[in-house]
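Good morning C.,

I know you're traveling, so I'll keep this short. The sequence:
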Amino acid sequence: MMNRRSFLKGAAGIAFTSCQLLDSARAQQAGGGRRREVTVGGRRVKTVDVHAHALMPEARALMGGPPAANEEMAALSVDDRLRAMDQQGIDMEAISINPFWYGAQREVAARIVELQNQKLAELCKAHPDRFVAYATVALQYPDLAAQQLEDGVKKLGLRGGSIGARCNADELSARKFDPFWAKAEELGVLLFMHPAGTPDLQRRLQGNGLLTNVIGNPLDTTIALSHLIFDGTLDRFPRLKLCAAHGGGFLPSYADRSDHGCLTFPDACKPFPALKKKPTEYLRQLYFDALVFTPEALRHLVAQCGVSQIMIGTDFPFPWTATAVDHVLSTPSLTAAEREAILGGNAVKLLRIAS
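The tokens, ready to paste straight into the viewer:
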């Protein structure tokens, strides 16, 4: 199986990432044809995928050095992507780029981000009814990242920002990132947070089952969110709009342990009880994609976090799912209004998409 950072080259200098061979990616998209229109209760609804990936080869090249041995190149045009969206019933994608530039020097990181954000804006301008995008930022330089986010939103029309679940050795709750959180809060835009695995656990996660991804990625998100809660970041920035990929990792599935840990070991929960709320209550000020695969998992996510906090995510073109829409439509615990909110209503508001 190819590594998660293998590349699928696309039109206009844009590559859409995938983790299987081209024939497998195209097989998922087979069927083409007329655009699927999604309805709830007999009424047409707009569907918005908040978790879809891209990569610009020119920007990747600025990091220097040869590609990793497990990176392969294959072709997937914007037209191919649109056909896949049409088949799955996805009206719009919000595109993000997983950060690979956090180790770059300031000037190189600035060039990478400028190039990426410009090309994302060009793609959205060419297909305004199908794509919006998150600005990329050089988070290792928080002052620069804050300016890049503002420029991306105000000058390029991007709808928010994308970040990793950590930045090099720093947790996102480190006070050095406060200027970036302040700017995101000031702009009132959504930040999409994607994991990058858990390199400290690489040895234990080797072997069968792709555990580096299957366990490592949601664990990365779980750790990041837990620090943002317990280290007070979400208290300092209560209006921050942060969406965590893959249903928030493991945290929503066992969140009550966070509350009980503080009750059982209060000395280990400083600044608790200085936190303004119980740890679980912060889940209702965060956002999550619905990439949790089963009706029971989605029911639990809604119960734990609130339907207003959840949106569909496909991880496209990683072939985790081609049925994100059907997952929501077929979850029996959801009402029509809840289905409409998750399918697109929540994202339309957060990403300022014309309804």
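Safe travels,
E.
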